[in-house]
User: Fold this.
Amino acid sequence: MSAPKRAIAAETGAAAPAAGAAAPARRGAAKRAWALVGASPIAMIGGAIILFWCLCALFAPWVAPYPPNKIDPAQLVYPYPSWRHWLGVDHLGRDILSRLIWGARTVLIVAPIAVFSAAALGIVLGLVSGYRGGVADAVIMRVGDTLLAFPKIILYLIIMAKFGASAFNIIAVIGVTNAPIIARIVRAVTLDVKNRDYVAAARMRGESPLYIMLVEILPNARGPLIVDVFLRLGYTTIAIGVLGFLGVGLPPPDPDWGGMIKETYGMIFVWPHMTIIPAVAISSLVIGCNLLATGLREAAHDG
Amino acid sequence: MLRYAAKQLVNMAVTLLVVSFLVFALNELSPGDVARKILGAYATQDQVDILTRELGLDRPLVVRYLEYMGKALTGDFGQSIVFRQPVSELLFDRLGNTLFLAAVCFAVIVPLSMLFGVLAGMRERSLLDRSITVFATLSASIPEFAMGVFLIGIFVVWLGILPGVSPLRADSGWAVWMQFVMPVLVVTAYDAGYLVSMIRSSMVEVMRQAYVRTALLKGMSFQGVVVKHAMRNAMITPFTVILLQLNYLVSGLVVVETVFAYPGFGRMMLEAALSKDIAIIEAGTLVAVSVTMLTQLFGDLGYMALDPRIRV
Assistant:
C-alpha cells in the first residue's frame, strides 16, 4: 500500500484494513447487524437516540404541539420554557419544540439521501476501480484525489455562489465529496478478495462481472461500510447544520436546526435558550450516529 | 524520496491547473454576470453589453483564462467587487489571520491529544480509557457552532469572563490575546476529540504487539515501555491525520470565524460566496487547494521518514 493510500485509510478511521475481519459468512445482514447492536451498550444508546429523532420526524404532524411556522409575537412577553411551550418560543414567537420536531424531518431526509447517494456512487466506482484495474482504476482514483483536494465547505460555497442554495445542491455536493472515500474502502476490499478461490470459481461458472462484483465481492465490504455509513451520517448532519448556520443551507422558513441557531444567535445574551436548545438537538443526533458507529466497530472486532 | 517529492509537486501543479480552469469556467462561462454584478440590477442590457465588451469579457473563455493565469502568476488576482481592494492584498491579510489562529490551535491540540490518546490507549478498556474515550467521542460529536453556543453560554453570558467576539481590534474592550481564547477553546474541543480517538486506537494496536509484551516480561517498568517503546510507534499512523488537521484548520475555521466574527480566510470566502464576488472565490479556491495538497505531500514525506519500511 503506498503512502497516500495509507493517509486516506487513516483518515477514514482505518476502516479499510479491518475489511479482512468481515469473513464471507452469509448470515442475514439484518440479523447480523441486530446481533452486533445488541452486543454493545454503546451502540444501543446511539441507536436509541437516532430512533427517537426518527420517530419525531415520522410523526411530526401528530406530535408537534403547534404548526412550526406559526408566528405569534405575543408569546415574546414570556419566551422561556413554560407549560404552554415546553421549550419556549423563538424570536418570532414560534414554538421551539414544534420547530425541532419538524426540523428533525428535514435533516433526517436530507442526510440519509446524501450519504446513500455517496455510498452508491462510491461502491460502484470502488468495485470497478478494484476489479477492472488498469486505466479505469487510474482515472477514477485520480479524479477522486482531485475532489478530495477541495475543502468541502469551499466546494459548497462555489456551487452555492453559482447555482444557489437548495436541498438538491447540498445532497449533490455531499454525495460527490464523500463518494471517493467510500470508493477507496470498497476498492481496498475488492483488491483483497478478487483473487480468492470463490471469485475464481464464480468466473469459471461463467458468471457475469456484474454478478461477481455485486454478489461475490461486495458482501465482504459490508462490515466496514456499515460503520462508515453511520460515521458519515454524523458528519453529514454536522455539515447540514454548518451550512444552515452559515446561512447557505436549506432556504427558510422551513425549520432547519442549523438555521434556527443562526437566526437566534444575535439574541444569545437576551434569550440564550433560543440558541442553546437547537444546538443540543443537533449535537444529540451526531452523538447518536457516532456512538452507533463506535459500538458497531467494537462489537465487530470482538465478534 | 526526492524523486517522489518532485513527482508529487508536478502532480500538484497539474491538479491546480485543472482546478483553476474548472472554477474559472464555472464562474465566467456566462460573461454578462460580471458586468451585471458591477452595474447593479437597474442597469439596462445595453450598458451591461458595453461594459462586458470594455472589460474584454466577450472574448473566448480560454483566452480569458490564459490572461487570468498570466496575471495570477505575477500575484495579481484582480479586484474584489465587494471589498473594493485588490484580491491579493485582502487574501494574504485574511490568510495571515487564519494561519495564526490555526497555528495557535495546532500548538494546543497536538500535545493535548497526544497526552490523552496515549493515556487512554496504554491500558485498553481501563476506567481511564473508558472515560477519555467517552469524553473524546462526545466532544468530537458536537459541531463547532453548537460548541461555540454552549461555551459562549457558559463563559460569556453566564460568567462574563471572556469576550464573545474576536474582531482582533484593541478598541473592542478586551485585550487582543483574550479574543483568541474562545475560538481556540471551541476548535480544540471539537478537533482534539477526534485526534484523541485516532491516537488511542493506534496506541492500543501497538500495546498488543509482541515487542511490548517482551519488554514487559524482561522486567522493564510499564512507564518505561510506554514512553520508550510504544509511544514513538504509536505516533506513526496518526502522524498523517495530525497533518491533515492543518487542512481542516485552514478552510474549516470558517465556522469558528463566523461565530466569533474573526477576520479570517474562511469568513472572507463565505462573504464572497454570499455576494458572488468571483475574483475572491477563484483566488481563494486556488489557495485552499494548494494548502490541502501541500499538507498531504508533507504528510507522505514525514510518514516515510518515520517508518522506513514504507517505500513508494
Notes: DSSP finds 13 helices and no strands in chain A. The radius of gyration of chain A is 22 Å. Chain A touches chain B through 48 residues (CB under 8 Å). The longest helix of chain A spans residues 96-132.
